Protein backbone atom coordinates (compact mmCIF):
# COMPACT_ATOMS: atom_id res chain seq x y z
CA UNK A 1 0.00 0.00 0.00
CA UNK A 2 1.08 3.56 -0.73
CA UNK A 3 -0.23 6.53 1.18
CA UNK A 4 -2.36 8.75 -1.06
CA UNK A 5 -3.70 11.67 0.98
CA UNK A 6 -5.22 12.91 4.22
CA UNK A 7 -8.62 14.64 4.03
CA UNK A 8 -10.22 17.36 6.13
CA UNK A 9 -13.65 18.95 6.07
CA UNK A 10 -13.18 22.72 6.46
CA UNK A 11 -15.56 25.63 6.86
CA UNK A 12 -13.86 28.06 4.44
CA UNK A 13 -12.74 25.89 1.53
CA UNK A 14 -11.66 28.76 -0.73
CA UNK A 15 -9.78 30.58 2.02
CA UNK A 16 -7.99 27.46 3.23
CA UNK A 17 -6.97 26.33 -0.26
CA UNK A 18 -5.76 29.81 -1.24
CA UNK A 19 -3.79 30.26 2.00
CA UNK A 20 -2.06 26.87 1.78
CA UNK A 21 -1.17 27.44 -1.88
CA UNK A 22 0.00 31.02 -1.38
CA UNK A 23 1.93 30.63 1.86
CA UNK A 24 3.03 26.98 1.96
CA UNK A 25 3.71 26.46 -1.73
CA UNK A 26 1.12 23.74 -2.28
CA UNK A 27 -0.52 23.47 -5.69
CA UNK A 28 -3.94 22.30 -6.76
CA UNK A 29 -3.63 18.84 -8.31
CA UNK A 30 -7.37 18.28 -8.75
CA UNK A 31 -10.39 20.36 -7.82
CA UNK A 32 -14.14 19.83 -7.96
CA UNK A 33 -15.96 23.09 -8.73
CA UNK A 34 -19.27 22.09 -7.12
CA UNK A 35 -20.13 21.03 -3.57
CA UNK A 36 -18.39 19.50 -1.68
CA UNK A 37 -15.49 21.24 -3.54
CA UNK A 38 -13.01 18.39 -3.07
CA UNK A 39 -9.57 19.91 -3.60
CA UNK A 40 -6.40 17.83 -3.64
CA UNK A 41 -3.18 19.71 -2.92
CA UNK A 42 0.32 18.59 -3.87
CA UNK A 43 3.62 19.56 -2.29
CA UNK A 44 6.77 20.75 -4.05
CA UNK A 45 7.52 17.19 -5.18
CA UNK A 46 4.15 17.11 -7.03
CA UNK A 47 2.89 14.45 -4.64
CA UNK A 48 -0.70 14.87 -3.45
CA UNK A 49 -0.61 15.14 0.34
CA UNK A 50 -3.91 16.60 1.50
CA UNK A 51 -7.50 17.00 0.42
CA UNK A 52 -9.70 19.81 1.69
CA UNK A 53 -13.44 19.83 1.12
CA UNK A 54 -16.56 21.49 2.51
CA UNK A 55 -19.44 19.15 3.36
CA UNK A 56 -22.39 20.99 4.83
CA UNK A 57 -23.95 17.72 6.03
CA UNK A 58 -20.95 16.82 8.21
CA UNK A 59 -19.21 18.57 11.08
CA UNK A 60 -16.06 20.52 10.29
CA UNK A 61 -13.75 20.10 13.28
CA UNK A 62 -12.88 23.24 15.26
CA UNK A 63 -9.18 22.60 15.83
CA UNK A 64 -8.67 25.96 17.53
CA UNK A 65 -10.03 24.38 20.74
CA UNK A 66 -7.86 21.24 20.54
CA UNK A 67 -4.24 20.81 21.54
CA UNK A 68 -1.97 20.60 18.46
CA UNK A 69 -0.68 17.23 19.59
CA UNK A 70 -4.16 15.86 18.89
CA UNK A 71 -3.61 16.61 15.21
CA UNK A 72 -1.30 18.80 13.13
CA UNK A 73 -0.06 19.19 9.57
CA UNK A 74 3.74 19.26 9.38
CA UNK A 75 5.96 20.77 6.69
CA UNK A 76 9.71 20.59 6.19
CA UNK A 77 11.35 23.98 6.66
CA UNK A 78 14.91 24.91 5.78
CA UNK A 79 14.65 27.96 8.06
CA UNK A 80 11.95 27.56 10.72
CA UNK A 81 12.49 31.01 12.23
CA UNK A 82 12.14 32.77 8.87
CA UNK A 83 9.11 30.67 7.88
CA UNK A 84 7.53 31.24 11.30
CA UNK A 85 7.74 35.02 10.89
CA UNK A 86 6.47 34.88 7.30
CA UNK A 87 3.45 32.75 8.26
CA UNK A 88 2.68 34.89 11.33
CA UNK A 89 2.61 37.91 9.02
CA UNK A 90 0.20 35.98 6.76
CA UNK A 91 -2.33 35.38 9.54
CA UNK A 92 -1.06 32.29 11.37
CA UNK A 93 -0.84 32.36 15.16
CA UNK A 94 1.96 31.13 17.41
CA UNK A 95 1.56 28.13 19.74
CA UNK A 96 5.06 26.94 20.76
CA UNK A 97 8.48 25.99 19.53
CA UNK A 98 11.08 23.47 20.56
CA UNK A 99 14.81 23.55 20.00
CA UNK A 100 15.88 19.93 20.27
CA UNK A 101 19.27 18.74 21.51
CA UNK A 102 20.14 17.38 18.05
CA UNK A 103 19.80 20.90 16.58
CA UNK A 104 16.30 20.48 15.19
CA UNK A 105 13.91 23.43 15.39
CA UNK A 106 10.19 22.62 15.58
CA UNK A 107 7.60 25.40 15.47
CA UNK A 108 3.91 24.87 16.15
CA UNK A 109 1.55 27.45 14.70
CA UNK A 110 -2.14 27.57 13.87
CA UNK A 111 -3.34 28.56 10.43
CA UNK A 112 -5.88 31.44 10.29
CA UNK A 113 -8.71 28.90 10.88
CA UNK A 114 -7.07 27.37 13.96
CA UNK A 115 -5.72 24.22 12.32
CA UNK A 116 -2.36 23.20 13.89
CA UNK A 117 0.57 23.61 11.53
CA UNK A 118 4.10 22.50 12.36
CA UNK A 119 7.35 23.65 10.78
CA UNK A 120 10.09 21.02 10.99
CA UNK A 121 13.68 22.11 10.52
CA UNK A 122 15.35 18.83 11.35
CA UNK A 123 19.07 18.43 11.95
CA UNK A 124 18.77 14.82 10.78
CA UNK A 125 16.32 14.74 7.89
CA UNK A 126 14.06 11.76 7.34
Automatic annotation (TrEMBL):
InterPro entries: Glyas_Bleomycin-R_OHBP_Dase (IPR029068), Glyas_Fos-R_dOase_dom (IPR004360), VOC_core (IPR037523). Residues 2-122 form the VOC domain. It comes from the Bacteria. This is Glyoxalase-like domain-containing protein. It comes from Maribacter orientalis.
Amino acid sequence: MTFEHFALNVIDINGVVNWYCTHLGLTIANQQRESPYMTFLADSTDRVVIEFYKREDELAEDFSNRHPLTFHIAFVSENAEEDKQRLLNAGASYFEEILKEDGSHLVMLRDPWGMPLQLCQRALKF
